TrEMBL record:
Residues 25-209 form the Cellobiose dehydrogenase-like cytochrome domain. It comes from Cercophora newfieldiana. InterPro entries: Cellobiose_DH-like_cyt. PANTHER family: CELLOBIOSE DEHYDROGENASE CYTOCHROME DOMAIN-CONTAINING PROTEIN, DEHYDROGENASE, PUTATIVE (AFU_ORTHOLOGUE AFUA_8G05805)-RELATED. This is Cellobiose dehydrogenase-like cytochrome domain-containing protein. Residues 1-20 form the signal peptide. The keyword tRNA processing does not apply. Pfam families: CDH-cyt (PF16010).
Length: 216
């Protein structure tokens, strides 16, 4: 009886774990304005996913985005799925390196709900500006080319719509990749996944190109 109630409570907690909150984040370090989403991956602990886009992005065409992820250091790996589902879209993963003092970025693609493969359809630049690790968090700031536009396994093109809400998904695992210095390391399956409507309109930057030149 007591045990049943306990299971009920745990289930309730897990189904409610993925609460999200959107906000505008003006980043003093990069000078960019990000559309920011804070998502709980467990009780009282959340990961922040931020996306900045150029103001001249054209609907239906590829555009670069800058992604910033801030995660507590108990996160083994976390990732974004730009198609709002695990399947057939760019998956962008981040985790801490073996020494625990830097961040590794990895690009993957899943043909289904199975271990994703390495994916060369995007390229990314991890910036020193806005990338750091301290005693409680790691933070990555990177440019992604290809995260806004891709071709799926049936040859269909999919893309992010600039300036409006887009369904995005995240996944989280407490387990660090076994070969943490390598971005092709095998990864453990996630414990938690979540979706939200990312308000890209809140992260539109007129000076996107200029700012990118200042980031190293
Ligand atoms: C070893 C690697 C992985 C395995 C084995 C795996 C496996 C699975 C499985 C079996 C499901 C279905 C679970 C259910 O319906 O309850 C699922 C769902 C999901 N996974 Fe993964 N996954 C992996 C990596 C990833 C990564 C890297 C991401 C994103 C960065 C991701 C994002 C998602 C999302 C968003 C869902 C919800 C269903 C959907 O939207 O398609 N997964 N995964
Ligand atoms: C790993 O990083 C290298 C160098 O940044 C990059 O060229 C390659 O595409 C990445 N591979 C994956 C699977 O992310
Ligand atoms: C650690 O880094 C995170 C993410 O950048 C930041 O929010 C937090 O304030 C930092 N903590 C300290 C003590 O500097
Ligand atoms: C592939 O893209 C096409 C065209 O956008 C779409 O209709 C189809 O649902 C996509 N398939 C998957 C698995 O996303």
């Amino acid at each position: 009886m007591v045990w049943n109630i306990w299971i009920g409570v745990v289930t309730l907690m897990l189904t409610h774990v993925a609460t999200a909150a959107a906000s505008v984040f003006r980043d003093p370090e990069t000078g960019l304005t990000f559309a920011s989403e804070f998502t709980n991956y467990r009780i009282n602990q959340g990961i922040t996913y931020r996306i900045a886009q150029p103001s001249d992005a054209v609907r239906g065409s590829p555009f670069d985005i800058i992604v910033q992820i801030v995660a507590p250091i108990d996160v083994g790996w976390t990732g974004l799925a730009f198609g709002g589902t695990m399947r057939e879209c760019p998956l962008l993963l981040v985790w801490r390196n073996s020494a625990g003092n830097g961040v590794v970025v990895s690009s993957r693609w899943a043909r289904g709900h199975v271990t994703p493969e390495s994916y060369n359809g995007i390229s990314f630049t991890l910036y020193k500006t806005g990338t750091k690790v301290n005693g409680t968090h790691f933070q990555a700031t990177l440019k992604c080319t290809g995260c806004s536009y891709w071709t799926n396994n049936s040859g269909g093109t999919r893309f992010l719509l600039p300036g409006v809400d887009n369904r995005i998904a995240m996944a989280y695992s407490p387990t660090r990749p076994s070969n943490a210095n390598s971005n092709t390391s095998s990864i453990a399956v996630h414990d938690v996944h979540a979706y939200w409507s990312h308000q890209l309109g809140q992260g539109v930057n007129a000076n996107f190109g200029q700012v990118m030149q200042t980031l190293s």
